[in-house]
Hints:
Elements: E1 15-17, E2 20-22, E3 28-32, H1 38-57, E4 64-67, H2 72-78, H3 84-93, E5 95-98, H4 112-119, E6 124-130, E7 146-152, E8 162-163, H5 168-180, H6 182-185, E9 196-197, H7 203-219, E10 224-229, H8 238-253, E11 257-259, H9 260-270, H10 272-284, E12 288-294, H11 295-304, E13 311-314, H12 316-329, E14 337-341, E15 348-352, H13 369-381, H14 385-400, E16 403-404, H15 406-409, E17 416-417, H16 420-431, H17 439-480
Parallel strand pairs: 3-4, 3-5, 5-15, 7-13, 10-12, 10-13, 11-12, 16-17
Antiparallel strand pairs: 1-2, 6-7, 6-14, 8-9, 14-15
Amino acid sequence: MTYQHVRVPDGDKIALADGRLQVPDRPIVPFIEGDGTGPDIWRAAVRVMDAAVAMAYGGRRKIAWMEVFAGQKSKDRFDTWLPDETVEAFREFLVGIKGPLTTPIGGGIRSLNVALRQLLDLYVCLRPVRWFKGVPSPVKHPEKVDIVIFRENTEDIYTGIEFEAGSEGAEKFLKMFREAFPKEFGKIRFPDTSGVGIKPVSREGSERLIRAAIKYAIDNHRKSVTFVHKGNIMKFTEGAFRNWGYTLAEHEFGDKVYTWDEWERTKKASGEEAANAEQKAALASGKILVKDAIADITLQQILTRPDEFDVIATMNLNGDYLSDALAAQVGGIGIAPGGNINYVTGHAVFEATHGTAPKYANLDKVNPGSVILSGEMMLRYLGWTEAADLIVKGMDGAIAAKTVTYDFARLMEGAREVKCSEFGEAVIGGMDGKPPVTPALALARKRGASVSRQSSVSSRKATKKAAPKKAAKKKAGKRRK
């Protein structure tokens, strides 16, 4: 494709062959730097990613970054929030990354993030949630949180099919609904002033999400997959999601999983003791437990016993709630990564999970951890695991040294607050085990040395001044005797 506003760098395309990514040594990767704090965060994050790749592969591999446009920057330059060529670039080059994007004001696109996911059919929102030692947390045992969320990205109420109360669309829809389903229409308490939304949940959409979650659990040696739903109330949408999930798990992965549906059947046929013994034997043989949980109960249990959850597969809205609630336990969304993936086509866009924070724009202040760790996810998705591991090591090192941005520094005793860019440098320093030294820290140390020298000089002067006084006191003492 010929691009009007995008400059394609020297490099090669990532391709998909036989269901596997074919990644060249110099892959072209589209990126959107983002709005608000996006440019600050991107500058820090891209340095970390480039350093990790260089350190891991000694110059043999390098990412060819290609800027594409969306959000406020695109609106200002091209008078459009999301140019067609941006979507086409992500489609052509398969894998990309983006910073936070503002929500357009007025009509048209409701969310640029949702639009990209739907246009590229990125049906999995992948959100790994774990704790880095030393990160401040509001819970007693954040180390127990190690959960990977597979959130369905294209269905549920996020399809945006809704009609404002009193609008022509609402009136037409409610009239049609009343005529076709009078009994169900009667359940609407105030129809004349009701807004209306539609919640589509399909078998195909549910199955491809759950299939991806179970495959991930198998490939990464996880212990369980939990379907989180509200099927006790929404039986034919969220309840169907649960039922389709169990059917798929047994039909496609029966030799690798044991489901709660199997347990229920054995209990009914042979009793609870036999069902418990069957489950115990299955898990001892290495099978993955596939279970389900009601959404509101899950929101309690991820606080009280998060170690009972491993991989979660859930619908769009539930996944939104769960992702942010879990992120709060391990440091907040400022350090939470995310990826939007279509495992069939290979397309993926990794992203910041937080907002644009415009009041901090261009202050070099905010935490770049979300995009840094989204970059780590991207590298791992490309199969560049050595570089991804270095980023994790660098994050561990920087946080362990308490070299952190303001959001963590204000909550950590003895922390050294650094800028966004300096935190990136600290992560790079932590990759090879060296203590992180940023410009601010170097200056602080220099000032500290200066203070020490001044203290030493002052101490010597004070000693000299004090010596005659001590001698005078001794003489006075002798006279008193």
